[in-house]
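anyone seen this seq b4? input:
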Amino acid sequence: AIGTYSAALYKLLQSTGFQPDFVAGHSFGEITALWAAGVFTDADFFALAKARGNAMAPVDDPDFDPGTMLAVKATASEIQTMISDIPDLTLANDNADNPVVIAGPTDSIKKAQHKLEAQNISSVLLPVSGAFHTPLVEHAQRPLSEALKQIPFHGPQYPIYSNTTAEAFPKHPQSIRKIVGEHLLK
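predicted toks r here
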């Protein structure tokens, strides 16, 4: 649904003459940005969106904790210092100085939230189905990599900025494929 909505909005913008100087997207939005830059065809974008969604489905194990995410009103450096003693937490989204998002096992996130509340730092549990961009979604890495092998990659028409490296993607399709294959865990 996100891919379809994003593609429709982008095509609407294009119909008005819009041409980007560069494209970027976070998480699944990075796949959309690659499509907008011409790295994938429309059909391949939708096939990849479906494959990524299937890969991200929860593990069929009642004991598996998919984890969760917490938006915290603090800077990345403040958070890293405050939660360094809580195991398995990852700074998952550092999009701005404040807030940032941490992710990890549900119990670890709850411990972090209580610790932050005790220090009068506000936080909000995010309504997500897992701790994205952490080792807890490692189960999705292999199926996504296999799906990526089936999709032809093309050189981009516009610069694309990666949420894995925070730099422009290389122009070579195989280099783009490698970075996209790792982005779930970054």
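DSSP finds seven helices and six strands in the chain. The first strand starts at residue 23 and ends at 24. kinda curious what u guys think
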